[in-house]
Amino acid sequence: MILLLLALACGGEAPAPPAPTTEEAPKAPGPSGLPMGEHRALRMAMLQTLQERLGDAYAAPVPGLDEADLAQGEALYRAHCLRCHGETGRGGPDASSLVPHPSDLSHPGKARFFSDAGRLEIIRAGFTGTAMQGYGEGQGAGVDLSEAQLKAVYAHVRSLRAPAPEGARFHDSPDAGPAKRP
Q: Which domains does the chain have, with CATH numbers?
């Protein structure tokens, strides 16, 4: 401000204001590497697709999930999921090169965005628009896991979740309502 007054007092001209641009500033990426609006839209489209695909089974408990073989699930996870999702579920060596980035399987809110049946279906069939391939029989990932093996992988994935803080509500959960971001 002082420099501007000094320039005007000495007969100089005030610098011209910057010209308006027609381009928007780049939007900050969300956790998926996509702009936040696209990230949310993709998650909501995935949710809707899973609910349509699974019907009433989407919200129902998954039979046999609690009895799944965790050791087998961990071995299968290491063989097929580690490069994208990483040891702890927070991203592996390939994660940053994928857009959208693989889900953070350890985050208490993000890991619970989809139901257990929904997550199991994502492992089984993959999801269009993401790098997630299907690992169920005949899905084309080059690996045909049985239903018991799919449940074992998901049981291991669930073991990676951090516990949610008491009474926590997450802003991007489908049922979050008016809760504010943490």
A: 37-159 (1.10.760.10)
